[in-house]
Amino acid sequence: MARTVVSNASTAWTGDLISGSGSTTLDTSKLGTMDVSWKARAEDAEQGTTSPEELIGAAHSACYTMQFSNMLAENGTPPTSMDTAAAVSFNAGEGGITGIALTVSAKVDGIDEADFQRLAEEAKQTCPVSKALAGVDITLEASLA
């Protein structure tokens, strides 16, 4: 029987959008608190300050990697290693989040290129975070290492 797991995060903010700032905390894992600001989101990434888009990229790359790893294992070709990046594009005007580019490189013994590409694309379509972000264009570049 499936069980629902709830993960929690929170953000505290002071000031207006442009000059204000805040901090986002990973409440469930207690792994940390990160500073957030409009400047880091819409102008220049400030070292030590994150953005909602960077956090979405982290979530998407982790989820996709888990999904793809499981699908490769179910195919009888478990990965030896996998590196995934998610580049989340944000337009500070009216566009908002305009796209996500997933890039994955994996070492997988015993799989041919066609099966690898098919499973990579299927993982993109079935990853729970991809499904949650279905309103955004998600591209994928997958390569065997």
Describe, in plain words, how this protein is organized in 3D.
Pfam families: OsmC. One of its GO terms (biological process) is response to oxidative stress. InterPro entries: KH_dom-like_a/b, OsmC/Ohr_fam, OsmC/Ohrsf, OsmC_Ohr_Peroxiredoxin, Peroxiredoxin_OsmC. It is a single chain. With 145 residues, this protein is of the alpha/beta class. The protein folds into two domains: 42 residues, no CATH class; 93 residues, K homology (KH) domain (GMP Synthetase, Chain A, domain 3, 2-Layer Sandwich), CATH 3.30.300. It is 32% helix and 37% strand. It has four helices and seven strands, in the order E-E-E-H-E-H-E-E-H-H-E. The strands form two sheets. The protein has a four-stranded mixed sheet with strand order 1-2-3-4. Helix 2 packs across helix 3. The termini are far apart.
- Let me know the CATH homologous superfamily of the largest domain: K homology (KH) domain
Q: Which strand-content bin applies to the residues? A: 35-45%
Rounded to an integer in angstroms, the radius of gyration calculated over CA atoms is 17 Å
Main sheet: strands, sense, barrel: 4 strands, mixed
Structural domain tally: 2
Share of helical residues: 25-40%
CATH topology category name of the largest domain: GMP Synthetase, Chain A, domain 3
Number of helices: 4
Q: Average pLDDT value?
A: 95
Name the helix and strand elements from N-terminus to C-terminus, one letter apiece: EEEHEHEEHHE
Instruction: Label the structural class.
Output: alpha/beta
